[in-house]
Amino acid sequence: MFLENLPKNQPVATLILAHGAGAAMDSAFMQAMVERLVQRDIRVLRFEFPYMAARRVDGVRRPPNTQKLLLDCWRQAYQLAKSHYPGFLAIGGKSMGGRMASMLADELPADALVCLGYPFHAIGKTDKPRVVHLSDLRTPTLIVQGERDPMGNQQTVMGYQLSAAVQLHWLEAADHDFKPLKRSGFLHEQHLHTAADAVEGFLRDVAALNRPGPSAGD
User: Fold this and answer.
1) How many other β-carbons are positioned within 10 Å of the β-carbon of residue 194?
2) What is d(CA 25, CA 31) in angstroms, rounded to the nearest whole number?
3) Fewer beta carbons under 10 A from the terminal one: N or C of the chain?
4) What domains does the chain contain, in order, with CATH numbers?
């Protein structure tokens, strides 16, 4: 079920990443992020929702499955990973994949949540935010977001009431795929590296907090 990318060194964490609504698990964005995360000693597992797996077979574009089915797929993926990859297990994804993960993070319960370009609202629909569950989220969470993301720019998102468990890492002048404006002076490559650094630092910090301390007899 999983496409596994394993680092050369001992993994500091295992991260399950789900794809966004319109692109597969091996899209250019996903490939670029996975390569960088693996270089930072993070094991990455990828899977595809049924509608995207079907497209891979026949090439026919389909809309995403119902939310219920997407969430059930996430539950199955988490349980499978939990049974095969002991230790620190984080979940997350690109856009829709991360949003679905965020709706289940506390339930599973995941050790951490990583969202890459969170769809705080549909494009042009700032009046219909998708943030209710983020206000009381307990799972340690990192959202890496472009400042000019059309699904949640910095000005809009800073007006939301988010849980204290949620950390936001903003990428200057970047869009939903972390591509910056040319006049910003940043390169897409730089933002991808910065995003990977943020994810690595976050997962290392949370994993360290979760690591059991010495027993009384040690």
Assistant:
1) 18
2) 8
3) C
4) 3-207 (3.40.50.1820)
Q: Sign of the CA dihedral 50, 51, 53, 58? A: positive
Report the alpha-carbon angle 141-6-207, nearest 5.
35
For residue range 62-110, list pLDDT tens digits in order. Answer: 999 999 999 999 999 999 999 999 999 999 999 999 999 999 999 999 9
Indicate whether this model's pTM tops 0.90.
Answer: yes
User: What's the gap between Cα 208 and its chain centre?
Assistant: 20
Residues whose CB is less than 8 angstroms from the CB of residue 13 and which lie 6 or more positions away in sequence, other chains included: 42, 43, 87, 88, 89, 90, 111, 112, 203, 204, 207
Sequence letter at residue 157: V
Q: How many CB atoms lie within 10 A of CB 53?
A: 14
Three-state secondary-structure class, residue 62: coil
| Number of CB atoms found within 10 A of residue 89's CB | 20
